[in-house]
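This part of the workshop introduces the protein records we will be handling. Getting from the letters to the tokens is the skill we practise here. An example says more than a description, so a record of this kind follows:
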Amino acid sequence: MLLVLIGTDSIFSQTQKEWRDSLSVLNRQIMSSEYSSDLYLRKAAVNLELEQWDYAIETYTDILKREPANPAALFYRAYAQGKMRRYELAANDYRTFLKVAPENVDGMLALAYIYIKQGKNKEAMDNYNRIIEIFPDHSVAYASRASLETTENFLDAALMDWNKAIEFDSKNIDYIVSKADLLIRMNRKSEARRTLDEAVRKGAIRGQLRELYNKTK
């Protein structure tokens, strides 16, 4: 489960102006009160919403100076570092986060993603393997590993993982379409067409799959 980014539901529906107004209020509260990690986390969350990555990183760093093992600050500073393409810094924060929460699946998936951005596919694969070992019914982990296996040209393994992802999340149309795309790549066109038909039965718009259908002829 992802860590709570913002404490109230209503804030998610705010406009950009309302976000900025919220930021002003939070800044005033921070200036006029004793240190509160909750206030700092809320302020940084608004920075993220406004894509103010550097300000968010600065705020999370302020928290971590006081609370070096604060999991939310570690996780979301890593996220902001990733947005800035500071992948080594992001990886460091995710690794530290995982020392605090060693079986947090979101942290493991995020670190694997950063490894891929760094070109460290072996490390990413190791992460996916570990996730699946701990959470053998985690559809996202199977789908993520399937995508990486496709990149590495391990097509049979990728197909098995797409099947697993679909087994554990049978309503996910993207998974079904991805499996069809892989079957086309493997020149298994009849199976690919049947898989596309399955996606349509489950709600995919046939017209949007025209290009893939054409490749099954």
In short: Residues 1-12 have pLDDT under 50 and may be disordered. The CA atoms of residues 162 and 178 lie 8 Å apart.
